[in-house]
Amino acid sequence: MLIFVLVYLSLPAKTQPEEDGVLFEIKENVFKFDGNSIWQGKANSLLSCSRTCASQSACKRVIFEGSKGTCFLLGEGQTHLANTLVKQDGTFYLKKITTTGVYSLLGTSKSAAIASCQALHSQSQSGVYWIDPDGGSHTNAFRAYCDMKTDGGGWTLVWSYSFTNNVDFTAHSNAVTPRPNWQVTPEVNVPISTTPPLNETNFNAMNFSLWKLLGRQILIKSNINNWLVCHPGTGSLVDWQEGEVSCKVVKHVTNTCTSALAPSKISPSKGYGPKLYRDSEWYSLYYYFDGYTGKDWPSHDPCGTSKSNHLKNVVNPRGNIYIRA
Ligand SMILES: [Ca+2]
Ligand SMILES: [Ca+2]
């Protein structure tokens, strides 16, 4: 049986700074050694054996034979042994890992699921990670896409949508699709998705009830309208609450209306989907997530005027919503 444990060792101040905290991955009851150690000696415990390794930068791996109290320090050259370990009771095989190595484990498997993309190390790459927004047992963890770059990163993708009729953008038959399972009027007829999108063109939506577990800030991206980051005020998308929001443009996608102000209000449930606007609900729309193919059209207007000012001639126009706390 493979046991994976992280041990944190605090070392005296005389050691080099990078060795103040050294982490080891431990495999118990396995042993394989070809006699090529950089040091071999007695140690009265696994801890003292691993401490000896921690204090020597050349030491990368440790084998400790508990019954004999023998400690082997292995250098870089023995790395291939990790794949050829054999069972032997009472022995320990320790692999030294860097702090970066520890962070790189986060979210890479179901058992290492993180609460949201914000739990990733800031140096992490954007991509798919395992998340478990409700915490506790990871049996219901799932894969989600993280944007680790835009406006500081830490964003979990909750919705990727396209349009039902982008060729005739202002036609009533145009709508965003699919839509999340949020509460809107029964007329709203585009398909509902509860499958987390795995990238920005994987048109799906995470179950809406999970959104609030990820946070209340939203990032809206689109390839036909400016990108917004909105903080909740009296209004909040994830709480399905009408009112004020504080939005800023984090990327100008088009040269149209570059000095236009970002929207300042949200009304989630009036009409056929959430609307972001500034003054008048119907005449200053910036984003309208209209999901009905029988009426209205999904404004993506960088001027905030409910007009057809979105970037034109874009192949496969789309949008994405991300969340962070
Ligand atoms: Ca869980
Ligand atoms: Ca429509």
Report on the architecture of this protein:
With 325 residues, this protein is mainly beta. It is 7% helix and 31% strand. It is built from three helices and 17 strands. The chain has helices spanning 46-54, 99-105, 208-214, and strands spanning 6-10, 21-31, 39-42, 61-65, 70-74, 86-97, 127-131, 142-147, 155-163, 176-177, 217-222, 227-232, 243-251, 265-267, 275-277, 285-288, 319-324. A hairpin with a 7-residue loop joins strand 14 (265-267) and strand 15 (275-277). The two termini are 38 Å apart. Mean pLDDT is 89; it is low at 1-20. One calcium ion binds at residues 132, 134-138, 140. Residues 1-17 form the signal peptide. GO terms for molecular function: extracellular matrix structural constituent; oligosaccharide binding. This is Fibrinogen C-terminal domain-containing protein.
**Number of DSSP strands?**
17
Largest sheet: 11 strands, antiparallel
The hetero molecules present are: calcium ion
Beta-sheet strand percentage? 25-35%
Ends distance: 38 Å
Overall outline: elongated
Radius of gyration: 27 Å
What is the N-to-C order of secondary-structure elements (H for helix, E for strand)? EEEHEEEHEEEEHEEEEEEE
Helical content band: under 10%
Q: Class by helix and strand content?
A: mainly beta
In DSSP terms (H or I, runs of 4 or more residues), the helix count works out at 3
Low-confidence runs = 1-20
Instruction: Compute the average pLDDT.
Output: 89
